[in-house]
């Protein structure tokens, strides 16, 4: 069953660092069969506060998604994102 890591960005703090993060972190998805489905396209809040940006990544299952998020391949880049933006990251199970 697929699982999705969803990043919702509330505020951009450093665009150049965020751009660097995207370039560096994207290859870390490969070994975990992660597929980026959404990358900061147009966004409209239907309920609640609007987000400034969003990223959705599909993985084969929850365990693989968690393994990627905590992996040594992704860990150095996670801090870049956290320092460049204010937002949330959630892991959801698909159908």
From TrEMBL:
TM stretches of this protein: none
Report the InterPro entries cross-referenced here: Dimeric_a/b-barrel, DUF1330
Tell me which residues make up the DUF1330 domain: 2-94
| UniProt-listed Pfam families | DUF1330
The record ties this protein, via PANTHER family, to: BLR0684 PROTEIN (PTHR41521:SF4), PTHR41521
Name of this protein: DUF1330 domain-containing protein
Q: Which organism is it from?
A: Neisseria chenwenguii
